[in-house]
Specification:
about 180 residues, mainly beta, Lipocalin, 2 helices
Length: about 180
């Protein structure tokens, strides 16, 4: 029995040596921002609370794994009344759906330090596949992954009922992200 166990460990060791280790996103150096338009005027905001893990190996970017979770109630619009409104059922419904989640399905190299990330974004009980260009920078023992994508808020049931008119609040929302993780 001991020989079998030693043999299995010996066979598994090369696989473990190359396994990617998930790194926690440093939220203090990272950010999730967005820009929407209300009556043609840009409204910028940020989510103050989020967490995630990224397992990235520059030699095997296609094997990257990432999971990001954003606390929707941490929205900062620099306006308390608007922040209260978007937490209600017609918008994010944070009482029932407190978090948005992104799970990376694939990271495809498209140039030097440039990638195409694709995966499932889940908000308010709705999950949709998204694709985002991502750039990678390494400096001072850190990796910074930055990118952006446009989501259609109505596909996620954000702004229902009287708020579903796109002449008042545009359907497109530009989401910008920067995630910092240790480089080793």
């Amino acid at each position: 029995m001991n020989r079998l166990l030693v043999s299995l460990v010996f066979l598994a060791a090369p696989c473990l040596a190359f396994a990617q280790v998930a790194q926690r996103v440093d939220a203090s150096k990272s950010q999730v921002r967005f820009v929407s338009k209300q009556m043609g005027v840009a409204v910028e905001g940020v989510f103050r609370k989020f967490e995630g893990t990224v397992a990235f190996d520059p030699a095997k970017p296609q094997a990257t794994k990432a999971n990001i979770e954003v606390v929707l109630g941490s929205i900062d619009l620099d306006d308390a009344e608007s922040e209260t409104e978007v937490k209600r059922p017609l918008w994010f419904d944070t009482a029932r759906f407190p978090n948005a989640r992104f799970t990376l399905a694939a990271l495809k190299p498209v140039g030097t330090n440039k990638y195409e990330a694709s995966g499932a974004l889940s908000i308010k009980g709705v999950s949709k596949d998204i694709v985002a260009p991502v750039t990678l920078a390494e400096s001072g023992g850190q990796r910074t992954l930055e990118g952006q994508f446009t989501l259609k808020r109505l596909q996620f049931r954000i702004g229902e009922g009287q708020w579903s008119e796109t002449d008042t609040v545009a359907d497109d929302v530009l989401v910008r992200f920067r995630f910092v993780i240790p480089a080793h």
